[in-house]
Every structure is written in structure tokens, then in C-alpha cells.
Amino acid sequence: MKGEARILDLLNKVLTVELTSINRYFLHARMYKNWGLDRLNEHNYKKSIKDMKQADDLIERILFLEGLPNLQKLNRLMIGEHTEEMIQADHDFQLEQMVLLREAIEASEKARDFVTRDLLVDILDYEEDYLDWIETQQYQIAHMTIENYLQANMSDED
User: Fold this and answer.
1) Fewer CB near the terminus (10 Å): N or C of the chain?
2) Chain centroid to CA 36: how far?
């Protein structure tokens, strides 16, 4: 089934964001692990795996629409140097991603490509939930101080 060029272009843009996201959250996970922040490591690692599955779904959809998935392009990772900066960068990244997803959903609706629309809505739902988690982390930092927040995200082991 030949997909519309505009839809394929947007799917590749969303794929680029997902591939970027895999790398950023994986690196953040390993930074948190290195710092002993095991709960943040686990949460970011799971996010990178989820993004990998979303990228796989996008690749399959692009191929089904007889397009060529572009796996060679990544956006800037925007990696923070400390926890607050990392969480803020994640917040900004999520907001940018959601703008693109909404644009792609709207274009899919206009093209009457409801399968692509459903795929993108599923991704958007997950990303909105993740943004909510990030905003909860920012709230906790603001109200319990960064020191207490970091201590709360360390492992209970040792």
C-alpha cells in the first residue's frame, strides 16, 4: 500500500525523535546508575526500551506504506550534567516531541490514514504520561530539595 509522501515524511520525523530518545534516555539511565541513583536509572532505562519498541512500530508502518525508514539521522541529544538539568532537558524534549506527534496525527486524519493515526495516538498517550512523570519529579525536587530527592532515588540496598 503506497502511503502519501507527507505522511511518510512525518513518520520519518517521528522515527528520528524516537531514535534520539532511545539514546538520550539510555545515556541518562547509565549516568544515574553511575551516580547510585538506581530508581532513576531503572525508570530511564525502561523509557529507552519503550522508545525502541515505538521505533520498531514506526519502522514497520513506514515499510508497509512502501517508504524507506531513515535510521541514520539523530537529533541533538541534549544531555544534562546533573539531575535537575537532565530532568529539565527531558521535559523540554517531551514537549517538542508532542508538538510533532500532534502534527502527524492531524495530517494522518486529513489523509484518512487511521491506522497511522492510531499508532501515533498510542505514542502520544505514552509520551504525555511520561511528561506527567517528569513534572512530578520536578515538583518533588522543588518541594523536598534536591538533596532529599536524590537520597529518595538511591537504592535501598547496601
Assistant:
1) C
2) 23
The crossing angle, in degrees rounded to 10, of helices 114-152 and 5-34 is: 20
CA distance to 6, 57, 83, 149, per residue, from 116 (Å): 12, 10, 35, 39
Residues 6+ apart with CB under 8 A from 79: 24, 27, 28, 31, 86, 89
Grid coordinates representing 96 are 517538542
- Is residue 42 annotated as involved in ligand binding? no
Mean pLDDT of 44-67: 98
Nearest alpha carbon to residue 136 among 155, 157, 154, 152: 152
- Distance from C-alpha of 21 to C-alpha of 50, rounded to nearest angstrom: 10
Instruction: State the average pLDDT over residues 7-27.
Output: 97
Distance CA 117, CA 24 (A): 26
Q: Which amino acid is at 21?
A: S
147 annotated as a binding-site residue: no
The reported pTM is: 0.93
> Taking 90 as the threshold, does the pLDDT of residue 38 lie above it?
yes
Cell numbers linked to 139: 515538583
Ligand-binding site membership of 52 (annotated): yes
